């Protein structure tokens, strides 16, 4: 699953020195963190990459949740929130990351290689989970940038397909090359023996690009308001229906606010883990 043909993969490198590993392990134990080995790295663009780590056998999570992950810097853990890309049944954990030049974590994390180690918190959390939504017919997952990450997890959970008849994922990015996971969402998913059967005629991937030419150009918010989105995917209305539609939103603060305002105008109500609603929102980053 999720083969990648859009860039070089890392060559396996020797594991870290035993002395370095035992120091890391002892720090992780002191801080109540897992220490897991990197097994795969893929760079999509100069600003985006994905990587996998071995899954701690005792880690349980709901598809769509996030964890704190990071590296040791100056003897201390430097951790940031990251959505888990993989569904809860997968044997490994995958993450989709931005590379911020001056970012305390990602200026370092972008140099990860197979065999390196990642610190990971023990308690996944989050609201982009089907449990925070009331039953419905259509599930829309609306993302910008790395906000796609939790939806890749939710999409591959069988529970999602039990609860919803139709699933739509939108992904808005500035440049076309930032449409990470596009091949998977457009083609590979349909070829997957199990997933392909679940999503047959029931899944729509709707990418939009805000800079340069693209068949579905512009912000998803504008395309929803203009009716272009509804027309493109053959919906009968360009408003969400609170009776049947459920929406998950993940992007920048400005995007989340704009989407939430629109959804409330359409009669939807924000849900939480202890109080399910008709839409849920989570930030893809702070700032
Ligand atoms: C709930 C939650 C889930 C998150 N999940 C992910 C994830 O799956 N993948 C991911 O890459 N990041 C994710 N983030 C952001 C992540 O926690 C860090 O901010 C990011 O890794 C950058 O860390 P840093 O230390 O390099 O820079 P920071 O000091 O954390 O950020 C510096 C600046 O970079 C920009 N920035 C940070 N993250 C992003 C981003 N993802 N996309 C665009 N611009 C960004 C912002 O302007 C921010 O102010 C998530 C954040 C939250 C709150
Ligand atoms: N993505 C990367 O590869 C990358 C790498 C390193 C650093 N950064 C920096 O990180 C910051 C965030 O970059 P980003 O591109 O990942 O995230 P972003 O600013 O959230 O933009 C992602 C997409 O969301 C759209 N968008 C933004 N606000 C919106 C709103 N209110 N409603 C609807 N759509 C909205 C943007 O459209 P518009 O184009 O119309 O704004 C863009 O297509 C920037 O300062 C960037 O320079 C990004």
Description:
- By secondary structure, this protein is of the alpha/beta class.
- It has two domains: 103 residues, Elongation Factor Tu (Ef-tu), domain 3; 154 residues, 3-Layer(aba) Sandwich (Rossmann fold).
- The chain has a six-stranded antiparallel β-sheet with strand order 4-3-6-1-2-5.
- The longest helix has 13 residues.
- It is globular and about 65 Å long.
- The relative contact order is 0.15.
- The N terminus is likely disordered.
How would a textbook summarize the main sheet?
Answer: 6 strands, antiparallel
What is the mean predicted local confidence, pLDDT? 94
User: Hetero groups bound?
Assistant: flavin-adenine dinucleotide, NADP nicotinamide-adenine-dinucleotide phosphate
The CATH architecture category of the largest domain equals: 3-Layer(aba) Sandwich
Number of strands: 11
Any idea of the CATH class of the largest domain?
A: Alpha Beta
Order of helices and strands: HEEEEEHEEHHEHHEHHEHE
Helix content: 25-40%
Radius of gyration in whole Å, from Cα? 19 Å
Number of separate structural domains: 2
- Uncertain segments: 1-8
Query: What do we call the CATH homologous superfamily of the largest domain?
Result: Nucleotide-binding domain of ferredoxin-NADP reductase (FNR) module
The CATH topology label of the largest domain is Rossmann fold
Structural class: alpha/beta
Compute the separation of the termini in Å.
33 Å
Number of helices: 9
- Beta-strand level of the residues, as a percent range? 25-35%
């Amino acid at each position: 699953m999720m083969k990648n043909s859009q860039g070089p993969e890392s060559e396996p490198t020797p594991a870290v020195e035993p002395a370095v590993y035992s120091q890391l392990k002892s720090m992780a134990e002191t801080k109540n963190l897992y220490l897991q080995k990197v097994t795969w790295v893929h760079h999509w663009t100069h600003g985006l990459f994905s990587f996998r780590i071995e899954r701690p056998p005792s880690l349980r999570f709901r598809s769509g949740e996030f964890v704190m992950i990071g590296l040791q810097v100056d003897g201390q853990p430097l951790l940031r929130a990251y959505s888990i890309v993989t569904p809860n049944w997968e044997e490994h954990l995958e993450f989709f990351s931005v590379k911020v030049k001056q970012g305390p974590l990602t200026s370092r994390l972008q140099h990860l290689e197979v065999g390196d180690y990642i610190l990971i918190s023990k308690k996944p959390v989050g609201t982009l989970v089907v449990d925070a939504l009331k039953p419905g017919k259509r599930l829309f997952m609306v993302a910008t940038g790395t906000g796609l990450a939790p939806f890749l997890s939710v999409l591959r959970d069988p529970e999602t397909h039990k609860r919803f008849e139709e699933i739509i994922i939108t992904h808005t990015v500035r440049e076309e090359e930032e449409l990470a996971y596009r091949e998977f969402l457009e083609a590979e998913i349909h070829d997957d023996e199990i997933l392909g059967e679940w999503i047959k005629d029931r899944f729509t991937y709707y990418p939009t690009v805000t800079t340069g030419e693209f068949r579905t150009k512009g912000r998803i918010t504008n395309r929803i308001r203009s009716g272009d989105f509804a027309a493109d995917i053959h919906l009968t209305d360009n408003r969400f229906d609170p009776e049947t539609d459920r929406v998950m939103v993940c992007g920048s603060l400005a995007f989340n606010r704009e989407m939430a305002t629109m959804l409330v105008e359409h009669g939807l109500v924000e849900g939480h883990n202890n109080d399910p609603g008709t839409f849920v929102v989570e930030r893809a980053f702070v700032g």
